[in-house]
Design a protein that fits this description.
The chain has 272 residues and is an alpha+beta fold. It has two domains: 160 residues, no CATH class; 40 residues, no CATH class. It contains six helices and 15 strands.
Amino acid sequence: MSTRFQVLLPALALVLTSAVQAYAQAPTLQEQLTAQYKLVKMGSDTSGYAVVDAGTLLEIKKGGILGVPYSDSSILSTKYEGGTVHSPNTLLTKGIGFGMKKFGKEQTTHLFAAGDKVYPSKIEVDVNKDDVALTIVACDTCNKTDPPTYNKAKVVFQFPKGSLAKAGAGDIEDTIGQLLSISEDTQQQDQGAQQQGDQGGQGGQQQQAAEQQAPPPQPQAEPQTIEKGQTTDQVQSELGKPDKIVNLGSKQIYVYKDLKVTFVNGKVSDVQ
């Protein structure tokens, strides 16, 4: 082994190691799409299924997506390719008994219409098949469906052969958006929450500013004091002129709204 090759070998190993680490750390297409679309969390109790945590609200742009009740264990896929929705053949649901365990009974299905709102519940990326599958669940409160059904559907977005391995997350999202676009209601809710937070902050600032501008509280006045032996002039300086004066010679009674002051020989002898 030449000396020159021995010198280059460590540098080459370092480059290869860095490349492997960078590749390992790069987020996969699956991870990027999952970060873009928040998945809904469903739960169930004695009353049935319910949305526990809402996901990204999507609006269906083209009709034809075939849905089934959320309780069904099997689901037929709707294919989206070249800008066209390919609904599955509903005849396939006859005689199979998906999730019903009763041979010969037709599965209940539902065709979603354009404008319906749904949540994503699962994202699957298959690079070998060049497709991305998105499972969705109906937002019954958004669609005003009563009683709620929580119908679900699986949409397979088919891409040209060999293109998915080279495609970026943005390209995939653009294609998904042709059929399932992020609803403006979600954006308005986010903006409303932000505005509410801003208004709350402004309200707090305004309240703080008002408190700072408010005049300081006035010191409490000293209580009026009447003591035995005070003269009539001293009492009037504290209480003001009486409403009535009862003159009994050496004894006088000053009548106020809430008390009576009795004077004997011009000095306070009693207060009632």
